[in-house]
Write a structure and sequence with these properties.
heterodimer, A: about 110 residues, mainly beta, seven-stranded mixed beta sheet, four-stranded antiparallel beta sheet, 11 strands, B: about 120 residues, about 0% helix
Chain lengths: ~110, ~120
């Protein structure tokens, strides 16, 4: 069964460093998302991506964040200068079309020290 | 803005019994989807069941069923014959039904414990 794949599963980085979280969505999907979940809290939307551009972003997704789909298969989330409060589980999700559900990757646990 | 509320932070059930998790939402849209996702200790998000707002019939997936009350904006999840593997955090989620890449809005979650 096709699945969304995220790498790495766990990343530890120093405050101020740049990190790139990687995702390979399901191959025939058209909509791509990043969500995050701070430990013990609910899942929060960061950004959606469709037709090679951002279609929606939340107030969390500030200038420190960017997304890219450089080669038609990978979908990356970059955090330019990490802060302690960026520590969270980051989920990538993809969806085939407007009538289908989103499938989530297994998540990347980001720890900023 | 759409909001999703899960008023039960924790629930517990005996193995083989039935449990119902509550969810309410607020929206002015007429076209939308509702979902229940399960998050086990591994923290992966697993889709349990979905409901289209335009469908009057409640969705069912094996031991999982929903009670969708559109007028009351209520969307509860019933788990029958609970199993130890059902123990997880359960999130209710809402999405607008439009062609653009609309986001999922999640509730706060309900931690379900299944007692042997």
């Amino acid at each position: 069964e096709p699945e969304v794949t995220q790498t790495p599963s766990h990343q530890v980085t120093q405050m101020g460093q740049e990190v790139i979280l990687r995702c390979v969505p399901i191959s025939n999907h058209l909509y791509f998302y990043w969500y995050r979940q701070i430990l013990g809290q609910k899942v929060e939307f960061l950004v959606s991506f469709y037709n090679n551009e951002i279609s929606e972003k939340s107030e969390i997704f500030d200038d420190q964040f960017s997304v890219e789909r450089p080669d038609g298969s990978n979908f990356t989330l970059k955090i330019r200068s990490t802060k302690l409060e960026d520590s969270a589980m980051y989920f990538c999700a993809s969806r085939r079309n407007s009538n289908t559900e989103a499938f989530f990757g297994q998540g990347t646990r980001l720890t900023v020290v | 803005a759409q909001t999703v509320t899960q008023s039960q932070p924790e629930m517990s059930v005996q193995e083989a019994e039935t449990v119902t998790l509550s969810c309410t939402y607020d929206t002015s849209e007429s076209d939308y989807y509702l979902f229940w996702y399960k998050q086990p200790p591994s923290r992966q998000m697993i889709l349990v069941i979905r409901q289209e707002a335009y469908k009057q019939q409640n969705a069912t997936e094996n031991r999982f069923s929903v009670n969708f009350q559109k007028a009351a904006k209520s969307f509860s999840l019933k788990i029958s014959d609970s199993q130890l593997g059902d123990a997880a955090m359960y999130f209710c989620a809402y999405r607008r039904g439009e062609t653009s890449g609309s986001r999922l809005t999640f509730g706060e979650g309900t931690q379900l414990t299944v007692n042997p």
